[in-house]
Structures are given as structure tokens and as C-alpha cells.
Design a protein that fits this description.
Blueprint: E1 9-13, E2 20-21, E3 36-40, H1 42-45, H2 50-60, H3 76-79, E4 98-100, H4 102-109, E5 113-118, H5 128-144, E6 152-155, H6 159-171, E7 175-180, H7 186-194, E8 198-202, H8 206-220, E9 223-224, H9 231-236, H10 238-246, E10 254-258, H11 263-277, E11 286-292, H12 297-302, H13 330-339, E12 343-347, H14 349-360, H15 368-382, E13 391-396, H16 404-411, H17 433-447
Parallel strand pairs: 5-13, 6-7, 6-9, 7-8, 10-11, 10-13, 11-12
Antiparallel strand pairs: 1-2, 1-3, 4-5
Length: about 450
């Protein structure tokens, strides 16, 4: 353990505040196995007023001065303050669209104000870019400081591997990814392949891949890039900050986010914690973590008031990125939900597919993991837990183009065990005007003219 603490940010055990490490130390867990978190010197940060921070962040949005135009690095002082700007590896991630889902919210759910934070509108198509820019930047800094790191590695269900491969390629750092064979979409598989990563497709699930990557990190000096590395959380926490900034610094009543390995839940709370501590906001949102019924260990723990947590064997789900039965960030996530008056809801495979299709019919094009969040939201609105006049933000974690094979199967009614209530297959007809016209008019009448 380091004798001196970095003056502005450091690693700290989530259980023992006295156990601290410098950010340039290669360490992932505390002595007792607890996760670490990055802690910032709030006294230093309070030297700027809340209004000064707001003005600074606004001035940097989409700017060309390196690296501050990034939604992550525009908040550098809150993320990784001591890194050299020249070592930042950024693709101007973040600053993603806060989409007003007016038609879906009002017509489908009866909500007066529903927003979708489109985190999939980023370089590799998922929110994982937000954390990976921080982690790979720190690796580049460590290499410059003389640390011996042969490669960076992660276990993944698709999106993490894409982000790691892209950012590592941009930095010129070797990347290794471990994927469960046959359990990620073609679009997700080809991303790390195209970016030159060493790709291992293993005969196991995500939890099995995670065990392998932890072993290579411990035994072979490979740098661990999964969310148990708390540097990732520092980038991901900017989602919550961006949401509030885009809402003119007004806090939503609810934020709904899908959860698998659960780093995103704790990251969301961490961003709000900093805004509260530094006076930029004066209240908390409530957080909903949505899980697939086939991979729901957090939901099962929530049903027992978080008194017990037991890993499960996650079953196959359309939401493949959150098919995780033993989430690494469980302790952080439970703490976040308890502090933010949180709820955990689950969704069946049919509910996931149909919620996504309903949303797509109103102009969205979301990933199945967002479908989990939308299905959970629909349940909570119907049950009266979420009032229809409250402001709700759903975090969409990835772009739907990564899952076109799944969407095609839905509309062809080929998803096993799913009825596809909103299927819209192409209509195949001979190229004859009269036939096309008659069918066109039938379809317009059936669907209802605006």
C-alpha cells in the first residue's frame, strides 16, 4: 500500500476509508477483497462554486480544445484530475442525445414527461465508451511512467470488448477480450475483431470468462479492464451529470437503468453524489435497476430487502449483455439503491421484446437491454409506483444496430417462446400497381391515418 495519498484523487476501499492507494498503482481490490472506489479531494473541488462548475462544463461542451469537448473529459477535474492531457485517449464520447420520447411516453404509458438518454449514440455504440476512455487513458499514463503492462484485457458479453478494443487500438496498446462463444451478436463480435484485439471465444458464460480474466490479471500482469476496476466507474458516472445538465440542472424524479454486472448503477449514484456534495443540485432522483428475469440475482436480493445475496446461474436472455449471475459490483449497487430509495424490477423475455417493439414504433431503435428498462418502467407506471406526472429518464445503454438479427427474428416471428405482438414483417407482392395499391390502402386503413 502506498505511503502517500494523491492530493486530489485516490483509490479507497469501500469498507475501510483508511485503506488507500495511489491511482498509478495496479490494484483492483482491497486487502479483504472489497472493491475499491476513486475518491476525490472535495475540499479542493469546493474552491470553485457550483455556478462556476456549471459555467465551466457548459463552456467545454462539444469544444475543440483537447480533450475537453468529450462529455467525460469536459469534467476532467471530477474524473481523473492528475492525468497528462497528452495521455488522454478520447473519441469525444459522451454528450449523447437526451431524446424526448413524447409519443411513446404519452400514448403508450400516459407519462407527461419521458426522456431516453441515448448512450448508444457514441463511437462504439454503447455507454461502455464512457468508462473505457478513462481506463485506457490511465494505462497510457502508467506506461509513460514506466509501468510494465503487456496488454489490457476484459471479459465481455459484447459491448465492453468493443470499447476496449477501439480505445486500445487508438492508443496502440494490445487488447485481449474473452467472450462466451456463440452468445454475442455478430455486430458485437466483429467490433473487437476489426479493431485488432486478441479475441478468445470460450465455451462458458460471462461469469466463466470473468474468472479467466481475473486469473490472467493476477498471474500474468495483464491490466484488468472490467468494471471491478473502479477507473471505469469514473467515466460512467458522467451519465447522471449529463442528464441533469441537459435538464437545465433540474433533477429528474426517476432514472431507470438496466443492470447486469451493476457497475452502471453505482456509477449513476456516484455522479449524483458529487453534484450533491459540491452544491450543484439539492435533491436525489429515485433509481430503478431493471433486470432480465433470466438473470436477476439483484432482483431476488431486493425481494428479501437486500438481507441476502446469492449468485445464480444466469439463463439465456435476449438482453445478452446483462446475462450475468454473479455481478462484480453487487456491494456498490446495493449501497447505491439503498441510498437513493431505489427499486429493482424484472422483465420476462416477452415483456422485453414487446416493450422494445412498442418503443421502436414511436421512432426509437433500442437495444434489448434498454427493452428491459422500458418493460420495467411500464410495470411500475401501471402499478402506480411511478406517477404519470413525474419526470422519468430511461438510460439506453447501446444502439439497436448491434442487435438487428434479434429485431429481424422478432418481426419474422422467429423468436422462440415469444409471440411478437407488434411484428411488422415486409409485405411481399408481385410488382403490379393494382395489387400494391389495394394492399397499401388496406394497410393504411388498418393502421389508422394520422
Amino acid at each position: 500500500m502506498s505511503k502517500q495519498v494523491a492530493p486530489r484523487a485516490w483509490f479507497q476501499s469501500i469498507r475501510d476509508p483508511q485503506e488507500r492507494y495511489e491511482l498509478d498503482e495496479i490494484v483492483y481490490k482491497a486487502k479483504d477483497g472489497a472493491l475499491l472506489e476513486v475518491v476525490h479531494d472535495l475540499g479542493e473541488l469546493r474552491k470553485k462554486s457550483a455556478d462556476e462548475w456549471k459555467a465551466l462544463f457548459k463552456s467545454r461542451n462539444h469544444a475543440t480544445e483537447w480533450p475537453f469537448g468529450s462529455g467525460v473529459w469536459g469534467k476532467k477535474e471530477w474524473v481523473l484530475p492528475d492525468i497528462d492531457d497528452d495521455n488522454v485517449v478520447s473519441m469525444y464520447e459522451g454528450n449523447s442525445n437526451l431524446f424526448w420520447a413524447e409519443r411513446y411516453g404519452k400514448q403508450e404509458l400516459g407519462l407527461s414527461e419521458l426522456w431516453i438518454k441515448q448512450c448508444g449514440n457514441t463511437h462504439t455504440g454503447s455507454f461502455k465508451d464512457l468508462g473505457m476512455t478513462v481506463l485506457v487513458s490511465m494505462v497510457k499514463e502508467l506506461l509513460q511512467r514506466g509501468k510494465q503492462i503487456p496488454a489490457v484485457a476484459c471479459a465481455s458479453t459484447g459491448d465492453t470488448s468493443a470499447a476496449l478494443a477501439a480505445y486500445s487500438a487508438a492508443a496502440g496498446i494490445p487488447a485481449i477480450v474473452f467472450l462466451p462463444r456463440g452468445k454475442v451478436s455478430i455486430a458485437q463480435l466483429i467490433q473487437p475483431v476489426a479493431n485488432g484485439a486478441i479475441v478468445f471465444a470460450l465455451d462458458t458464460d460471462f461469469d466463466g470468462c470473468m474468472e479467466i480474466v481475473k486469473q490472467v490479471a493476477e498471474n500474468d500482469g495483464v491490466y484488468l479492464a472490467n468494471s471491478m476496476n473502479s477507473l471505469r466507474i469514473e467515466g460512467q458516472k458522467t451519465v447522471g451529470i449529463e442528464i441533469v445538465e441537459q435538464c437545465d440542472w433540474k433533477v429528474p424524479d426517476w432514472i431507470v437503468i438496466p443492470g447486469g454486472n451493476l457497475g452502471n448503477v453505482s456509477a449513476l449514484a456516484k455522479g449524483f453524489d458529487m453534484m450533491l456534495d459540491l452544491g450543484l443540485i439539492d435533491r436525489k432522483p429515485r433509481i430503478v435497476c431493471a433486470q432480465a428475469e433470466a438473470a436477476n440475482p439483484l432482483y431476488l436480493s431486493y425481494q428479501r430487502n437486500f438481507e441476502v445475496f446469492e449468485p445464480i446461474a444466469a439463463r439465456p436472455t435476449l438482453a445478452s449483455a446483462i446475462q450475468i449471475g454473479n455481478p462484480v459490483s453487487i456491494e456498490k449497487a446495493i449501497d447505491a439503491l439503498q441510498r437513493y430509495d431505489g427499486i429493482v424490477e424484472q422483465a420476462s423475455e416477452s415483456e422485453i421484446a414487446d416493450a422494445n417493439a412498442r418503443a421502436d414504433r414511436t421512432g426509437l431503435f433500442n437495444c434489448p437491454h434498454t427493452g428491459v428498462a422500458l418493460a420495467a418502467l411500464e410495470k411500475l407506471v401501471r402499478g402506480g409506483v411511478i406517477d404519470r406526472d413525474q419526470r422519468v429518464v430511461v438510460v439506453s445503454t447501446a444502439h439497436g444496430l448491434k442487435f438487428v438479427d434479434q429485431k429481424v427474428k422478432y418481426h419474422r416471428m422467429e423468436l422462440e417462446g415469444i409471440e411478437s405482438m407488434h411484428a411488422n414483417p415486409p409485405i411481399e407482392l408481385p410488382a403490379r400497381y393494382e395489387t400494391v395499391r389495394d394492399e397499401m390502402l388496406r394497410q393504411i386503413e388498418r393502421r389508422g391515418a394520422p
